[in-house]
Amino acid sequence: MLGALLLLRHSKSVVPKVTGLARLMANFTQVSNPITGQSGWQERDDNYDYHLEVANAGFGDMLHDWERNQKYYKALKKTIANMREAGKKVHVLDIGTGTGILAMMALRAGADTVTACEAFMPMANCAQRILAANDASQVRLIRKRSTEIVMGVDMTQRANLLVAELLDTELIGEGAIGIYNHAHKELLTEDALCIPARANCYAQVVESSLAAQWNSLKLLANLDGDILLRPPKELQQCSGEAALHDVQLSQLPSNSFRCLTEPAEIFEFDFQRKQPRELKRQRAVKIQLQHAGNAELVFYWWQIALDDAGEVLLSCAPYWAHPELCQLQNTCQDNRRPLANLVPWRDHWMQAIYYLPQPVQLQLSDAHLWLNCCHDEYSLWFEAHKQLPTEKQVRRHTCSCDLHMTYSRSRIGQLNQGTRNKRYLSYLEQAIQPDKQQHVLLLGDGCLLGMASAALGAASVTCVEPHRFSRRLVDSVVKHNALKSVTFFEQLQQIPADQLGKLTHIFAEPYFLNSILPWDNFYFGTLILQLQQQQLSEQLQISPSGARIYALPVEFLDLHKIRAPVRNCEGFDLKLFDQMVQHSAEQALSLVEAQPLWEYPCRALTQPQQLLSVDFYNFGQEQMNHGHLKLEDAFGVCNGIALWVDWEIVKDSPKSVVSTGPSETIVPGQFVKWDMFVRQGVHFTNYTEKSAQLDWNTTFKPQLGELSFKFTLSPQHIKNA
Ligand SMILES: C[S@@+](CC[C@H](N)C(=O)[O-])C[C@H]1O[C@@H](n2cnc3c(N)ncnc32)[C@H](O)[C@@H]1O
């Protein structure tokens, strides 16, 4: 198995075509290199955007979702048989057919006619070929959005059975409300049935200081507990963004949250109803209190009844609220699977956290709370109250303090992370002493921790913040805490030479808004290289002084499925789909992708190994490294390689390391506990058999911003031969 990673990633496609040259299949796309910070034009295949869209469509994961596939098929068989028994002809419409899978199921289940429509052209073309390969060419395929179908032109008659899978984690985020309204008005008969027939949405009110960390900024205290930085009022009073935070809720450590209520049903969406859907979009639900506490957030999920009688149910509940947990426990064959992972795994529908705009402190004597549940055409939001709220329309809240609209949830969480902050602060407390006239330069976006150096008594703090909102946010913290001698610059080049010459310390966390993979933050090194072209003090201290990239071969319980071929789904051959995705992935996907690994359990197959070590005092040095890792037979199949960065705050001081990888010691054969406030890198091997050894090569050319890895797995039989 061979893989290569290039750090250049697609950013924004501008695509001026090169005409007159013999480059008919090429265009230029603007790409930005996160390590050098440079943007440039790169020649790309003409179909690059198309490949990117295909590769990222995420169909694979949904087609690996056996529960979804089986239940759709079961509901189709049952409904079509019932309709025929009632003497009806069955005319099926499949909206958003994708691979054509549901249309083929309907045909095989005995529908008289099947019409399928698909708006995404590459997918529609692929569906046409898949239908032919599965002897299902009778399915009439319309290459259009359902809302553009013209009755009498595209369809000869209205359908009396609609099958569709247009749902997302939020249920309605893909526009299901509008699509169903249109279908009932224009495309379906009066008595049409729908699969799924209904959806019920659930909310559970929760207290969780861990999850709240993803939403608001805490105080920053020094090692003795004295407060160094307080968040300004604007931040404390901000309602935050209403947007959902989609999460694999079952993976939250069970001691990290407290459910204050049982799950409550908040909305029912009836897909079969003829009248326009869900006109009443706000509902105050009275929920009984189970425990006292601070109502900070809402856990949300949904359940669908696929058939009209409500016998074929599919729930997206986390394990503790899953209606089939006991049954799944009794039938699970794998006794090594943790309880939280007994419920069917899927990444295309997760659960969501909604942060309440104003947390409500509840006593048991309150007995219940009122949850105001609201939605529009595409999304939901919530408010909690002790008393029945007025019927006044609740507006969707938005960020007014810059924090939520500037930073991702994981970055906000990282800014609050105690252990990480302590390590950086213990360095700053040692390094910065008020009587020593120290001059500190802060690099990185939103380097609030670095501002502690001003609170600790640095003579001056110079902060480079190119991003306007991030600068405004950090400036508000500076003003609120009355920090002295802090100056902001947009660019490094604007800092006067004499100010640079006085610097005693350069500090970063390091974090940059453009970073996706952990080592994208090596941009810190590029900035140091630029500074080293100026007259700097020889005593200048750089922190972090270095960074190391580590690799760990792992066996994922489930995550590898997002990139694994589907091959066959419920007896239908989908190899043509696999080929299309594979081809597009080769054109457009980086072979290492960023994933929040705490949400995706994996077992370590060995101890990790260092692939690269960079020294920020000498960042320009090119490196080519190689090595290998022996894999233990007993521990499992290497279906992924996890990669992360450890930042060395001070040279050769093992205690002053901040890791973006495992948060506990790795034990081969056991599950890895990952940092929950950063995404790690993952390379999927697509291996399904045990391997004996992993060979790796790393090439790092910092001046070009090039970092590439190659991984080769040797199969077991080579070792055994
Ligand atoms: C979640 S996928 C489901 C694919 C397939 N039905 C399945 O179950 O595997 C949804 C598909 O619907 C398509 N789609 C979404 N809205 C549509 C619409 N209004 N008309 C036609 N296609 C639509 C998308 O392009 C996508 O291919």
From TrEMBL:
It is an enzyme of class 2 (transferase). Arginine methyltransferase that can both catalyze the formation of omega-N monomethylarginine (MMA) and symmetrical dimethylarginine (sDMA). Residues 256-365, 547-683 form the Protein arginine N-methyltransferase domain. Keywords: Methyltransferase, Repeat, S-adenosyl-L-methionine, Transferase. One of its GO terms (biological process) is methylation. Belongs to the class I-like SAM-binding methyltransferase superfamily. Protein arginine N-methyltransferase family. PRMT7 subfamily. InterPro entries: Arg_MeTrfase, MeTrfase_PRMT7, PRMT_dom, SAM-dependent_MTases_sf. The keyword Nucleotide-binding does not apply. PROSITE patterns: SAM_MT_PRMT (PS51678). GO terms for molecular function: histone methyltransferase activity; protein-arginine N-methyltransferase activity. Its EC number is 2.1.1.-. This is Protein arginine N-methyltransferase. The keyword Repeat applies. It comes from Drosophila busckii. Pfam families: PrmA, PRMT_C.
